[in-house]
Amino acid sequence: MRKFERKPTAASFDAKPGEGSEAAAASKPPPAAASAGMLKGLVIVATPIGNMSDITLRALDTLRGAHAIACEDTRVTAKLLARHGISAKLVAYNDHNAPRVRPLLLQRLRRGETVALVSDAGTPLISDPGYKLVREAVAEGLPVVGLPGPSAALAALVVSGLPTDRFLFAGFLPPKSAARRAALAELAPVRASLIVFESGPRLAACLADMATELGPREAAVARELTKLFEEVRRGTLAELAGHYETAGPPKGEIVIVAGPPATPTEVSDTDLDEQLQVALSRLSRRDAVAAVAAATGAPRKRVYERALALRSEP
After folding, report:
1. How many CB atoms lie within 10 A of CB 117?
2. Which pTM value belongs to this model?
3. Which of 110, 151, 231, 256 has its CA 20 to 30 A from that of 300?
4. Which range marks the domain in which residue 283 is found?
5. For the chain, what is the largest distance between any 2 Cα atoms, rounded to a whole number of angstroms?
């Protein structure tokens, strides 16, 4: 198992937050920057995932010139704006108030205003409420523009050392082991690198379930990407599960990347039966089927049928 740790950078992470409120944003006149050349409509703006310097010039221009900035947490976004000298024009838009605020944002868009949509960190719509706003804007034929930028999922993938030509982002897996393993069983046949988010307290258990359901795949755990204590730890899923079980829950934001399944080879019924007999001697039938399917690349249905056949034999 290999570990890579990036040394602290000189970037600042503790800029003091500015002040802003939905009422103040609504009462302010449009900024001077909102003129010819300014993007119109709903603009999806990616923001830093840790290091506040990781923002594009185009994103800063848009935030500076927008009539309103819809954000998950005004306190978080105010820090970013203060760091870059941008006056706060913030409107809180999150899971709690979305049904009430979304119509107000759509009304602004209908008036021809520019509304910038940001998340607390990274690219909006990835595990945040922006999807419904974008969908309704598209349904009404309102302009929607995306400004690319930081993404924890992609940042983890490119430093993982795992295949990048095909990948699947699965967000957060279910917190309970049974449901998590069921979800992983569905993902196991997908011939792509798998990217998931996880919390520190659940990391070891999640990796153990991934090792059971996905088999002996190479993986990487990326933690605190772009921040002072960035760390990428690589190894097999089982090795990583063992490390975090011993070391305890790590702190910070965590992304797991698991490599794709091995290229399947034709496996005879005899080979499957032999591996199943070994697996069944120490695992339940469900777990044995999952383990053999992951190890051989054989379809889970076929392995299950062989397990039933073994049970019926004398």
Report:
1. 27
2. 0.74
3. 256
4. 269-312
5. 84
